[in-house]
Amino acid sequence: MDGVIVVNKPEGMTSHDVVVQVRRITGERSAGHTGTLDPDATGVLVVCMGRATRLSRFMMDMPKEYDAEIVFGISTDTADASGRVVAKSESFELPKEAVFSAFQRFVGHIDQVPPMVSAVRYRGRHLYELAREGLTVEREPRRVTIYRIEPISSADWPESVTLDSRGQVCVTCSKGTYIRTLCEDICKSLGVDGHMGTLERTMSSGFRLEEAYTLEELSQAAESGQLATCVRPLVEGVRGMPKRSVSEDEAARVGHGARIRADEGEIAHASGSGDYVALLRADGSLAAVGELRLVDGCKWIQPRVVF
Q1: 154 burial via Cβ count (<10 Å: 0-12, 13-18, 19+)
Q2: Residue 146: left if φ>0, alpha if ψ -120 to 50, beta else—which one?
Q3: Whose CA is closest to 278, among 252, 233, 239, 243?
Q4: Alpha carbon 220 to chain centroid distance?
Q5: Is residue 38 flagged as an active site residue?
Q6: Catalytic residue among 2, 38, 80, 249
Q7: Residues 258 and 296 placed together within one structural domain of the fold
Q8: Are residues 189 and 247 in the same domain?
Q9: Are residue 76 and residue 151 in the same domain, yes or no?
Q10: Residues sharing a CB contact under 8 Å with residue 196, sequence separation 6 or more, in sequence order
Q11: What is the pLDDT of residues 108-161, one digit of tens each?
């Protein structure tokens, strides 16, 4: 089975557990997701199956969106609600406008130190493995991008933020962003402890939560013979990517790894050399993903993945 299934991951399951369930439901052994969600988090988990797994590396690079809860005045050893409380800011009062202003200091390119509970490797081992043994090691900061952070509803925030106050924010960010670290760092910038409460991913790889199916819905669709209606075609995996139509002759050449000239009109959104372009056949199906290259002053598209 070739295609993409958008899953609404439930709380308490790992992303790998979800992929295993999708394999069981669909009968497709070749499947993988396009970006891990923590067990306690819910929301969009995009699962690629069959030939669509070859698109995963492109889909992972797309921006992600989250609804997150910030808990003020209390720090935990995991920076989220599942951790052990390690510090409290007993007496403080912040106007919510001051908190909203602090959000803007984190918009743009920022450096984050990966949390010890992350899957980042240190000398061949995952950080979370070391954390389970009670170890803490030095981690190098990583550059990420926050495109937007703002309150979901200003009216739902308390007028004065105090110990254990909670507020919901919407965050649009690059891959590799740790929302728990962002919530913790926002609180630190305000001079108080804090951590992330609930977390829901509302967009990933171009797919929104409204398009996602629960595992129960997928199982029911499979039992009723309607599973195919839940599977997105390969071309859906290149949402947001600049596109170029190709003739049958060009599709054949691309299929053999040959580059073709770029059509300036159709790839106007590509910014320059190194960008990826989706190549579509006349029937709208995906022929390949190519990389835009500048050769002798001319733009060419070199196929990287062909279908």
Answers
A1: exposed
A2: beta
A3: 243
A4: 27
A5: yes
A6: 38
A7: yes
A8: no
A9: yes
A10: 68, 69, 70, 71, 79, 80, 81, 179, 180, 182, 183, 184
A11: 999 998 877 777 777 777 777 777 777 778 788 899 999 999 999 999 999 999
